[in-house]
Design brief:
146 residues; mainly alpha; Rossmann fold; 5 helices; globular
Length: 146
């Protein structure tokens, strides 16, 4: 929602994985929130610490999604149903919106849980879910481009 926890982690994770596979140049990767209340803020320190502990650098600053993003990106990947609904209300094309955990082969979750109001274990859970989903997403996109 605010672009300081889940989506910047997914952005950094996907970028890291694409770089390791030598495929980074084939992607334009960014994250944004549907709300603007954290615009300009750094990612949450707890999420940065979790990323660092796994060798991933989380940087950048929060921003709110803009209508230009709907034309500039082929996929708009949501962390949860609330963001999905918000994006549709903002005019995002339904056919470009997908759910992040739709790429996770083994989770019963539909939404990536928001760790903001919980403890450190929630940030690790988000990391684990995103790691698997980003691997599958990257596999799918690379297979599609072959």
């Amino acid at each position: 929602m605010g672009n300081i926890c889940r989506s910047p982690m997914a952005e950094a994770m996907f970028r890291h994985k694409a770089m390791l596979r030598g495929a980074l140049d084939g992607f334009r990767i960014d994250s944004a929130g549907t709300g603007g209340w954290h615009a300009g803020d750094d990612p949450d320190e707890r999420m940065r610490a979790t990323a660092r502990s796994h060798g991933i650098r989380l940087e950048g600053s929060a921003r709110q999604i803009a209508s230009a993003d709907f034309a500039d990106f082929d996929l708009i990947i949501c962390m949860d149903e609330d963001n999905h609904s918000n994006l549709l209300a903002m005019g995002a094309p339904r056919e470009r919106i997908t759910m992040m955990l739709g790429y996770h082969p083994d989770t019963p979750h539909v939404d990536v849980p928001d760790p903001y109001y919980g403890g450190q274990d929630g940030f690790q859970e988000v990391f684990d879910l995103l790691e698997c989903a980003c691997d599958s997403l990257l596999d799918a996109l690379l297979a599609e481009s072959s």
